[in-house]
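Exam prep: given the inputs below (a chain plus flavin-adenine dinucleotide), describe the expected output before reading on.
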Amino acid sequence: MAEFIVLGAGMVGIGTALALQAQGHAVRVIDRRGPGEETSHGNAGVIQAEARVPYAMPRDWGTLIRYGLGRSNDLRLDALALPGAARALLDYYRHSAPSRLAAAVPHYAAIIGRATEDHGHLVAAAGADHLIRRTGLGEIYLSERDLDSRARDADDLAKAHGLAWRRLTGDDLRAEEPDLTDTPAGAIVWNDSWSTPDPAALVRAYAGLFENRGGTVLQATVRGVTQRPAGWCVTHDDGQLNAAHLVVALGPWSPDFLKPLGYRVPMVRKRGYHGHFDMKGGLTRPYVLAGHGVVISSMTRGLRITTGAHLARADAPPHAGQLATGAAAAGKLVALNGAVPDSRWQGVRPCLPRMLPMVGRAPRHEGLWFNFGHGHQGLTLGPTTGRVLADIVGGRQDELARALAP
Ligand SMILES: Cc1cc2nc3c(=O)[nH]c(=O)nc-3n(C[C@H](O)[C@H](O)[C@H](O)COP(=O)(O)OP(=O)(O)OC[C@H]3O[C@@H](n4cnc5c(N)ncnc54)[C@H](O)[C@@H]3O)c2cc1C
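Solution:
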């Protein structure tokens, strides 16, 4: 048994803390906010069993030009962001080459494929079943042609990875979702995916489980870490903590945090927004609105509309365009009665160019471990990469461990 401090109480930090604790380690977590109040709060709330292929950068000129000209709501690109993001974007472009992507897929599929089972254990132990919908993830298509084309891809993906999916006509969809106000061409539903109406509450429930099992969550801002002969000293607002081992699970803040230790980790910071809208009725599952670059999902505060990526400088002001376009598209399918006050949010998907999270031993420091860079699927993957890291700490050295190694 060893002592660990986990930096960060998002889904990844709490998932890691629980997994280390389950292997008999003494674990403390520290975060400047409460558990799950940052990126792990603001996402679309989907536990994405279907996401076996990570998000690669499109490499065809047509799509890149559409992005460059601002003709897609999936991605907004600020020219001012380019100089600072150039290295990460070039790496991302390189790793998105078909052969490299194909090499990453088995590892990504291996961790995504375990995610609902790993959540399932925690949900049961935390008594959090009321925070989980096992109703799938839908994709709504407005044109028959787009639906046909996606159905062909979905079938290939399903066959390759053993996924269950179904195709719905517009009428089938309205029978399942009586609060839709219009009939689209149809939808695809990925049956194995789950969702939560309150991602932050799910992280809080897991954090409560960790504390009930003897763990500690401290709320304080970490100012720095120092390596000592006996391990690590964490300096925070109210004092210091010491432990033999330190895990960095700071999501989008991880690269900046690691700079003073000499690590340069390029990250593609895909900013995303959400807003809540008052909706008449509700939806049984989240839906991607194909062609509009948003996900809509009934959540505790109303219909949450979550946007695609905005590549912006960290200090760039929020841009309302993607959310407004998404809300206009959603308003044609469901009855929206305006925005919920104070419900706008922005955060950053912590995407690494190689499209796999960094999980494992830090290359140059004893007792330092990384678990960050979960990009588009960190809510899904937190409990799973937490378990993988705990196994690596215990000596796991297989192909997956090598693929995720920092
Ligand atoms: C718009 C959007 C939609 C998304 N949709 C989905 C989805 O549907 N499904 C899915 O699986 N994923 C989704 N994601 C991705 C997912 O939200 C992230 O990958 C995940 O939340 C990352 O978790 P994390 O624990 O690594 O980071 P975080 O949740 O951000 O946790 C990091 C923690 O570090 C803390 N911290 C930072 N600096 C310090 C410091 N100096 N001292 C103390 N604490 C510090 C922060 O307070 C924070 O709590 C989405 C992301 C976005 C932006």
